[in-house]
Amino acid sequence: LLLANQIAAGEVVERPASVVKELLENSLDAGATRIELDVEQGGIKLLRIRDNGCGIAAEDLSLALAPHATSKIRVLEDLEHVASLGFRGEALASISSVSRLTLTSRQVDAHQAWQVTAEGVGINRQEAPAAHPPGTSIEVRDLFFNVPARRKFLRTEKTEFDHVFEVIKRLALSRFEVALQLRHNGKSVLSLQEACDEASRARRISQICGAAFVESSLKLDVERSGLRLWGWLGLPSAARSQTDLQYFYVNGRMVKDRLVAHAIRQAVQDVLPHNKHPAFVLFLELDPGIVDVNVHPTKHEVRFRDSRAVHDFLYSTLYQSLADVRP
Ligand code: ADP
Ligand code: MG
What we know:
The structure is a single chain. With 327 residues, this protein is α+β, with helices and mostly antiparallel strands. It is built from eleven helices and 15 strands. The protein has helices spanning 2-12, 16-29, 61-64, 91-97, 148-151, 157-174, 198-209, 211-215, 236-239, 258-271, 307-325; strands at residues 34-40, 46-51, 100-106, 113-119, 123-130, 135-141, 179-184, 187-192, 217-224, 227-234, 246-250, 253-254, 280-285, 291-292, 303-304. Strand 11 (246-250) and strand 12 (253-254) form a beta hairpin. The radius of gyration is 21 Å and the shape is elongated. The structure holds adenosine-5'-diphosphate and magnesium ion. Belongs to the DNA mismatch repair MutL/HexB family. GO terms for molecular function: ATP binding; ATP hydrolysis activity; ATP-dependent DNA damage sensor activity; mismatched DNA binding.
């Protein structure tokens, strides 16, 4: 069991950033509207996440750390319509097998919270009552303390934190309605209020991507035959130092997809031939029945039922929007 879990852990847990991704996705799945993250030493020493989501029932607490324990699939057909971000039930089991993990949770109508701790697999698993507001806290300490071979592959504190930060930015861009606080070594790094109107959405984009990007980008929102594309497309002046600023979301999930990348690059180049690396934060929304974003759990691929139609829509929408503002 130990070995099986550590092998499974290798698939989802590569570094602190992969832990953060899984924990954030769980909080979002739990309907959290407020998430706080504390990171110490790039996440190698400590990752702590607190949310105000639905919480976990006392009797399910230990189960949440067990392999293949997911509360998110009830029938097989659910697999075809997975709306939640996680559905494999592996993350917490894997993370707890390679760290010192404490899970504290309380459902809104429960009269108290419960806590379970795990150190590696099966070592020192305990449950105890605890004080905690409705929601869930997960503390992950000393990542890979029992897997020296993996620990050796971790990079500097700064590099690991950069990866953590990137994961958080990606998620913060996809969930404007969720407030998010991030601290690193006790210092506030990001403090995002919930953003439910145009102005506050633009403010969040500017906190994450920089004011220069928002000020010099084209804001668009186009809907046609069931497809909607909205967001910000950087014009050349904004793109200069922002070649890594490329975020594309399909139904709220970030993807890196060749078809999408091609449509964007082609449209931009056809209007602005010198803009080779456009910066963008774009959101595509379409019927979840005609897209599969779960092709592989850790990759960012996506499969559209009618990829030609999606490509044409992206290309023509961006081409037209850019042509309209071309100087
Ligand atoms: P998955 O997300 O694939 O179901 P995980 O191992 O990530 O599997 O989580 C296991 C289970 O623990 C989830 O299905 C969920 O029921 C519960 N859980 C984990 N994190 C939270 C959270 N922040 N709030 C509420 N429930 C949670
Ligand atoms: Mg999960």
